[in-house]
Amino acid sequence: MSIGFQLQARDGAARRGVVETAHGRVDTPAFMPVGTAATVKAMRPQDVAATGAQMVLGNTYHLMLRPGAETVAELGGLHRFMAWPGPILTDSGGYQVMSLAKLRKIDERGVRFRSHIDGSKHELTPEGAVEIQDLLDADIAMQLDECPAAGRPRDEVADSMQLSLRWAERCRAAFRERAGYGLFAIVQGGMHDDLRRESAHALTGMDFPGYAVGGLAVGEGQAEMFRVLDVTVPELPEAKPRYLMGVGRPLDIVGAVERGIDLFDCVLPTRSGRTAQAFTHGGAVNIRNARHRRDPRPLDPACGCGVCSTFSRAYLHHLIRAGEMLGPMLLTEHNVFFYQTLMHRLRDAIAAGALADEAARIRAEQAAGDIAPMEAKA
After folding, report:
1. HEC string for the chain
2. Does 126 share its domain with 207?
3. For FRET with 170, which of 110, 191, 337, 365 sits at 20 to 30 Å CA-CA?
């Protein structure tokens, strides 16, 4: 009476598998484009699906404020509301709890906060977070947790982790079990090995359908993030999906897959597309730079997306410099496609037992840098 998860192949700690939900399957390792307000910014749902994405992420905090979870439920749930028929994961609002520190108050009951939109007062409890995600009809819901800010003292991180454990128990009790739907727990504990292990052990004892690693990608650096994963992931159940929240730089994903992570999300590919940055096989490219002004070549010659097969760097540069909305739309489409291609490469490599070679190839591509600029023609 929950989501299903089948492991199909292993290569070292890395896994290839399938998550089965009420609205379809997700091949893992997978990257979920972020649809904060029921939209992956600058993309139509059918265009998101065309990149190869199978699941998207929605944001509980933002959707509860507008249009409201009850409104979404009245209109048939989030899948129908945003015309996305596939699986949806919703976060619980825990990250927003951290980021809106000046607008909220946390206690044992939950979080009381003021809306960043209009200043109205709201309360979010563990039970309320589960109810909202139920109203949204999320295939995978997340427990409400407190995500401690980077650099907090160890005793405060420990208290925060313990609060998240108590909230996890309340979320588990409030969750309505049904076929194809699941609730994930979130491991916290900052950069402290013992706290991470303690959190993981307590949560696995509650028998959640899946487990997330939270509290990373908050400025700690790649080496420290990988160290925390090395400590945390082995403590999680082998037969349950593992989700690394908010991590999305390409080489961060590669390293996390090597350590046994199955699911990812991040705003990076869409946000970067809106700020003239494209991800390519040769690393990140700022298409605003003048060197692209007369370049007739595609953004990424190794990419199979419609943007790269249709438009030149010169045209994309023109759109961005002219402030045309098509520019961010095309860069976003390319970036989401690039991320899905990356995940496809990793899945195939795991299935073939060749992840080490493929990971080395990806790292070498990224280190090589962008293709050399063309000489300007008179």
Report:
1. CCCEEEEEEEECCEEEEEEEECCEEEEECEEEEECCCCCCCCCCHHHHHHCCCCCEEEEHHHHHHCCCHHHHHHCCCHHHHCCCCCCEEEECCHHHHHHCHHHEEECCCCEEEECCCCCCEEEECHHHHHHHHHHHCCCEEECCCCCCCCCCCHHHHHHHHHHHHHHHHHHHHHCCCCCCCEEEEEECCCCCHHHHHHHHHHHHCCCCCEEEECCCCCCCCHHHHHHHHHHHHHHCCCCCCEEECCCCCHHHHHHHHHCCCCEEEECHHHHHHHCCEEEECCEEEECCCHHHCCCCCCCCCCCCCHHHHHCCHHHHHHHHHHCCCHHHHHHHHHHHHHHHHHHHHHHHHHHHCCHHHHHHHHHHHHHHCCCCCCCCCC
2. yes
3. 191
